[in-house]
Amino acid sequence: MQRLTVKSLACFALFAASATPALAGNWCGAGKPVKFAGITWESGQFYTEVIRQVVQKGFGCQTEVVTGSTAATETALVAGDLQLWTEQWNRTDTIKKGVEAGKIKLVGDLLQGGAYEGFFVPDYVIKGDAKRGIKPLAPGLHSVSDLPKYKDLFKDEEDPGKGRFLNCPTGWDCERINTQKLKAYKLSDSYTNFRAGTGSAMDAAISSAYTRGKPVLFYYWAPATLMGRYKFIQLKEPAYNAQCWQTLQANKGETPCPSATPATKLQVGVSSAFHQAEPAVISFIEKMKLPPELLNRTIAQMQERKASPEVVAKEFLKQHPDLWKSWVSADVAAKVQKGL
Description:
By secondary structure, the protein is α/β, with parallel strands linked by helices. The protein has helices at 12-16, 26-29, 42-59, 70-79, 93-100, 123-127, 173-184, 199-212, 225-229, 242-250, 272-277, 279-287, 292-305, 309-319, 321-324, 330-339, and strands at residues 5-8, 34-38, 63-67, 84-88, 104-107, 116-122, 155-156, 159-167, 191-195, 217-222, 232-234, 267-271. The radius of gyration is 22 Å and the shape is globular.
């Protein structure tokens, strides 16, 4: 397992005086730190900081954020070395086996409507943008089944006979699923399956095309920073089919069949020991839920301002008390409010 690094230690001393011991359960009451996985993407970092600040300021717990790869931190959670792993998509064998073995629990439902993903184009491709002098380039494009007609619009300069589909980097789950989808949607003959080198390169390619008003066809997901910054249109895909979805995920040589990706319930991975010791904290997490527009807008601003998740989470708690105070008791809310 990759060695973990403590990114930021708790400011317990600063808040111990304001903590109400009665609010803490057996874990925090015993002085044990609550260790969070240091997630690398913006929405996960934001969720982590909001939860961490409420747990620290409202429940009086020591907190730490421990960085590491997804594989390393998920393994640490299952082993009980971490207590909380926010924005869990529940797609790795590590998490699934951890749940089956009773070592961790997945709690909460962090995003209204769940996370979604699929094939996207900028809205000006279909609707145009009068302010930028862009006429609709593909007004009849609504579904992935329409894409063969528009391969020249999304021309791959390295293979001009095909359009280019911008996929995830190799090694990501989405790259594997999208590759299966291109086969299932019979797009392999008309589109190049172009893998971005990194997530940053993928974002840069989309941002560059959007800024220049150029057509681009790509995979993306929400919640995500670009979703808050730009206007995209998701293309329709064949209805979700549980059996076909397995052929898209498994990729064990079987012929894939068409299916949209189902919405994903974003949850928090919790070690079973912490879950049992801190029922009040678990109750708070179970009530936490954000509207997707608000989350996308917030993390987009976080990136544009180059502000830290800690700063943005604190601002969020100051600006939206009516939202988060519904997740906790009045006593905890008062503690959090005082600590902001």
